[in-house]
Amino acid sequence: MSITESYPPAFRRVINDGAPSATAEIEPVLVQDKDIDVPVIDFECLDKEILTEACRDWGIFRLKNHGVPLPLMSQLQEISESLLSLPFENKQKLFAAVNSPMSYFWGTPALNRSGDALKRGAQASNVSMVEGFNVPLSKLPASTSCDDDAQRSELESFRVLIEEYGRHITRIAVSLFEAIAQTLNLELSSHQKSGYLLESTGLIRVYRYPPSDKTAGEALGMEVHTDSSVISILKEDETGGLEIMKDEEWFRVKPVADTLIVNLGDMMQAISDNEYKSVEHRVKKKDMTTKRHSVCYFVFPQRDCVIKSSNYKPFTYSDFEAQVQADVQSLGTKIGLLRFTPESPLFL
Ligand SMILES: O=C(O)CCC(=O)C(=O)O
Ligand SMILES: [Fe+2]
Predict the structure, then answer these.
(1) Torsion, CA 347, CA 298, CA 316, CA 335, rounded to 10
(2) Do residues 171 and 139 make contact, with C-beta atoms less than 8 angstroms apart?
(3) What residue stretches are annotated with the Fe2OG dioxygenase domain (predicted)?
(4) How far apart are CA 193 and CA 174, in angstroms?
């Protein structure tokens, strides 16, 4: 099998001859991208001041001394790469065959609750050059079965590693949320705490962004967006490609080995009543001749917990998710929190 056959057919022209596929349009470059160092938080001794500043001025920070065993991180990366380089047709069947809540998706990170790519509206401008597996942590099966022996053992290793990585990353997310709530002086009962950040909503996505010939221009791996989560935690490889919007300029976040990147999502912005921000970001590879892998964890509020603030109408995460899905399907894009400001008419 040539490596190209492992990619979705819509990606293959971009990879082979650099021509953007019919649907893959190139986003205009807004500003010359520059490298940037985001604030660093030491998880072993959380500094309240640095954390406050990072959440308020950046919405993103790097986490060092996070305690996730490095061999676990590299094994998870290795097995994800191996599964993602299976032939496209096999990946499509990989989880369907075992009736697993895990799923394979490509072309967009906007998925429905079953983990399938959302059909996007006519105005959707492009296919994102990304594919991946979606893994809801609380629904991981106790074991995986599969007809093919070699794939069965790889799938089983993937499941075991994701489960273990999930335990570490959930612990980190919960501690960070507690620390961030303290910086906001939110006096939360344990009931409110789990309303705002419910461990069982945690999900992991492993992504692969294909290489593309330079003549393809600035192929976007993931278009500009904010995360809908409370907190997202990203483990990227050394290729780089994550870009953030800060003070109306795009900056490339320099990859730093063995660290994690934490970004705040829309729910944290609402919980903090806009004190903290959900950072706008995108993935755009500088070196388009190499592929990029990342592992992303997202955690959300309890579905029916009402989030009250002065900047938004009271809403639940269920309302938010339904609105995002309606917007993606009809307009091709997420509107997000703006739908919930007092002056915004709801669209649903
Ligand atoms: O893969 C990455 O580096 C970022 C992914 C991301 O932003 C997302 O899934 O929301
Ligand atoms: Fe994101």
Answers:
(1) -20
(2) no
(3) 199-301
(4) 9
What is the third-level CATH fold of 3-305? Jelly Rolls (2.60.120)
The pTM (predicted TM-score) of the whole model is 0.92
DSSP 8-state secondary structure symbol assigned to residue 78: H
What are the boundaries of each domain within the chain? 3-305
Is 132 a pocket residue for ligand 1 (Cβ < 6 Å)? no
State which of 135, 239, 278, 296 you would mutate to test the pocket of ligand 1, scoring each by most atoms of that ligand within 8 A of its C-beta. 296
d(C-alpha 261, C-alpha 62), whole Å? 5
Residue-wise pLDDT for 201-210, tens only, equals 999 999 999 9
Q: Is the dihedral of CA 240, 243, 246, 251 positive or negative?
A: positive
Sheet holding 34-36, edge to edge: 34-36, 249-253, 242-246, 281-284, 220-225
Residue 236 has pLDDT above 70, yes or no: yes
Cα gap 55→275, rounded to integer Å: 8
Report ipTM for this prediction.
0.99
Q: Is 95 in the pocket of ligand 1 (CB under 6 A)?
A: no
